[in-house]
Amino acid sequence: MSRYRGPRLRIVRRLGDLPGLTRKSARRAYPPGQHGQDRKKKSEYAIRLEEKQKLRFNYGLTERQLLRYVRKARRASGSTGQVLLQLLEMRLDNTVFRLGMAPTIPAARQLVNHGHVTVNGKSVNIASFHCKAGDVIAIQSSDRSRKMVEQNLQFPGLAHIPSHLEFDKEKLVGKVNGTIEREWVALQVNELLVVEYYSRQA
Predict the structure, then answer these.
(1) Fewest C-beta atoms under 10 Å: which of 41, 76, 100, 154?
(2) How far apart are CA 101 and CA 153, in angstroms?
(3) Which structural domain range is residue 192 located in?
(4) Terminus-to-terminus CA distance in the chain, angstroms?
(5) Which of 65, 103, 64 minimizes the C-alpha distance to 87?
(6) CA 22 – CA 44 distance, rounded (Å)
């Protein structure tokens, strides 16, 4: 299953606010489609599926990638749901987004893919690169790269930078100081239901 490239507000109307996917908010508060207003009671499976889809669309992952992250979280010590969120939040594209260098995660992924971002002085163009404590994330010295990020910084996707990151707006340099805490995850999601959804596959 390939990455979603369709209308984003359609997804927001169905799943609720997804800060990583788009900055726009839907005018209608009910899901899209002919039966969007027929609010039937959801089954337990439907609720778990919805929580899983929130993670998938917010972080811009394919089904296979998300399953891989769930399996990795299972092997790690600690709460599987919390470890899963930490793994997703420490991706390079998400870190660039949380530093305010891009308005959304897809925009941050494009910055990374096009070679505008460096990690510890080396150019990294892999959006799924896992950031660790001590990593220094900066923008290439070219005028084009810096101008693009400076424009994005005027209208960041989220107002506050999480406590595990620090950012120098003058030099356009960010630093990862640790692992993100649960309360700083911007997405409203029940990660335990996502783990339950994958319990038979992972």
Answers:
(1) 41
(2) 6
(3) 8-87+186-197
(4) 18
(5) 65
(6) 27
